[in-house]
Write a structure and sequence with these properties.
The chain is built from ten helices and ten strands. The chain is α/β, with parallel strands linked by helices. The protein has a single domain, classed as Alpha/Beta hydrolase fold, catalytic domain (Rossmann fold, 3-Layer(aba) Sandwich). α3 packs across α10 and α4 crosses α5. The termini are far apart.
């Protein structure tokens, strides 16, 4: 485990980065059972209508625009989270493709993904940054937002539904190539989206577990959970099973799995290595590359390698399309 992960994990456990999670326990039992039952289903992708504000050109020379749309998962979200928000960051000239980048855990707003999007723009790619339900402008309260396990499940489920609808909107508009990426929790959500869309997408799972189960039951995030509200540490196996139901392994490998690049920290204290390797094994032809460093250090100091994984996933998708018979 990288030294910076140990430090981050220690301060997180003391409540210095965010309040303890799930302080109100499991949440509505029937809703939790519903989420588990529906985690392996493949629902239709509802259309969305994104309302874009006029684009602007910033000092970095890139084109920015903010947009909103009603969440297709509004029924499972608090009112403050029902209007989805996203930002588009693109190169000044023609775009070589569009990548939707999903939010990591506790990633409020767009600042954490901003520099990654800037790097991608230098390679001609446009980035779409979706703000997660419960985060940033979609935050329902001023305190801890994920007060129950149901809240966490609702956030992840809604992010998957919204991401699928965004990619489908791009696909129906004829924009190509398109891709999906994300770091940590964002990587897991990106993989779930990639596995459940009926058209080819480039996929970059960055520090991506096949499900949140191993992360919350085995990684350093376990120190951030208010275990007493869940019945004590004996609830660890229950957390693993419940959150593990939202797994990419429950879906067949998509035809575009061979375009996926899975890039992960070699000394990650948050994402168990086996959870990353399982995703790689489940997707034939996907590439797994290890980046020197830990979960925090790679995100802070290795954005160039993360951006390269995304760019390479687009290249692999183009190569795959080129090999298909006319």
């Amino acid at each position: 485990m990288h030294w910076l992960d140990r430090i981050a994990g220690f301060f997180s456990s003391k409540g210095h980065f965010y309040d303890p999670l799930f302080v109100d326990g499991w949440g509505d039992e029937k809703l939790l059972e519903r989420f588990q039952a529906e985690a392996g289903l493949l629902p239709d992708i509802p259309p969305i209508d994104i309302a874009w504000r006029p684009p602007t050109t910033h000092r970095d020379g890139l084109r920015y625009a903010d947009g909103t749309f009603p969440s297709p998962a509004a029924e499972i979200l608090p009112e403050a989270s029902r209007l989805a928000a996203l930002r588009r960051i693109g190169p000044p000239g023609l775009s070589a493709g569009t990548c939707l980048i999903m939010a990591a855990f506790n990633d409020h707003g767009y600042s954490t993904r901003h520099k990654l999007a800037q790097r991608l723009a230098r390679d001609g790619l446009t980035s779409l940054l979706l703000e997660n339900p419960y985060y940033g402008s979609r935050r329902p309260t001023s305190g801890q937002t994920l007060r129950t396990v149901v809240d966490f499940f609702a956030m992840g489920s809604a992010a998957v539904f919204e991401g699928r609808s965004i990619l489908a909107d791009l696909h129906h508009r004829g924009e190509a190539p398109i891709g999906i990426a994300g770091y940590s929790m964002g990587g897991n959500i990106a993989a779930l989206i990639s596995a459940t869309v009926p058209f080819p997408v480039a996929t970059a799972g960055l520090a991506a577990s096949h499900s949140p189960g191993p992360v919350w039951a085995q990684g350093l995030l376990t120190n951030s959970i208010a275990w007493e509200a869940l019945g004590g540490l004996k609830a660890r196996s229950e957390i693993a099973a419940i959150l593990g139901s939202a797994s990419v392994l429950r879906f067949p490998a998509p035809p575009h799995a061979s375009s996926a690049v899975l890039a992960a920290p070699a000394a990650d204290g948050y994402i168990p290595r086996h959870a990353i390797e399982s995703l790689n094994s489940h997707w034939p032809g996907s590439e797994l590359r290890w980046i020197k460093g830990g979960h925090a250090s790679v995100l802070l100091w290795k954005k160039g390698e993360l951006a390269r994984a995304i760019v390479d996933s687009f290249a692999r998708l183009r190569q795959s399309d080129g090999r298909k018979p006319a």
